[in-house]
Amino acid sequence: MPRSVRPPPDVAADPPVHPSPVRQFILKVHSRCNLACSYCYIYAGPDSGWRDRPRVPTTEVIRRTAARIAEHTVTHRLREVAVVLHGGEPLLAGADRLAADIALIRGLVPATVHASVQTNATLLSRERIRRLRDAGLRIGVSLDGGLPAHNTARTDHAGRPAWPAAAAGIWLLAEEAPEAYGGILCVVDVRHDPVEVYESLLGFRPPMIDLLLPHGNWSAPPPGLPAPAADPAPYGRWLTAVFDRWWDADRRRTRIRLFEECVSLLLGVPAAIERLGLHPFTSIVVEADGAIEQVDSLKSAYEGAAATGLDVFRHSFDDALAHPAVAARQSGLAGLAATCRACPLVTVCGGGHYVHRYRSPDGFGHPSVYCADLAHLIRHIAARLTAAAPPGSSGSPGTSGNAPSAAGVSRAGPVPDGVDAYGHPGRLR
Q1: How do residues 66-83 score in pLDDT, each as one tens digit?
Q2: Residue of 194, 253, 277, 310 with fewest CB within 10 Å of its CB?
Q3: What is the per-residue burial (b if ≥16 Cβ within 10 Å, else e) of 132-149?
């Protein structure tokens, strides 16, 4: 049954007239994890709802979810959708079960299904990798860096380091099935040297790296924030160091999704991630019991923040789109704080990740706790793009659409006092 809901106090009362359909469906195929990472916002955060959920969904939950996805694709005439198998640790359910779930979904959904699984890699074996690859699943990995020292917070429930098993699993994936290797998600830790982290991850030959800011907010700030005046943007400075090494390389050894999306936005192309830009957010979660929820990151704010009170047995995904809290994620510029709406960076930053705007007790109507860091990163990338443009070129960043020009971004005034993203199927339209 769906969990009780405490709606955030600042969400819009009415859904948008034409909400954007759901295009990414995140299915919780196992609600437990074999690791006990100290910073995990699911198992060590304020929301303990996972304790009341079944470990794995029944076949009927998967079947009903597939039917709801099919219904949604027909209603909105979607040609392709993304399905991400998630957890917990999804491989606790077994590779055969994951392959069967995707086969069931593809058999019922009348659209192309881009399927992926997000794993901590500790349970990857040659046989499991082959089974997932043969089932048409891309395999994404979560890791905090490419050296043991970067992963000390990632341990199992007995306190043993996860690094040896995770590193072995990623090497197997890179060697055995590079065509199924989706990439690496890495949470930024400003205690570690940024270039060292980046170059160590390259050793695993990832086709893509996604750099994620730790989930925090104004009431529960991430490590290192609020920052001292002498270094107001520690995360922005960390990210720009990686950007420069990536940008200046003789050849591009991997993609970095955050940087690519920032560049796209500066050039006037809408972003496909929730952390940047004003494009409507179009992901939804189905929990192991069939509950329809918002994305897990909201669970880092408060108990029940992701809950909607809906489930796949009684409700459609259009019902979810009409939910006030979901509609708030699609309200674009109108849903941002006044400070953000007046900022010249807003079409690029988009107010930052929704959950990073939270402040108790009044909700998400604030700038991101990472505002200064995002401004630092965007201005830096804009300046690099401007410097790379041919002399006399009229095609400087941001000259199309509503994005600010690179020159305008780099000249923007200081941020006001007190203000400071699974599988990667590509852009689904």
Answers
A1: 999 999 999 999 999 999
A2: 253
A3: bbebebbbbbbbbbbbee
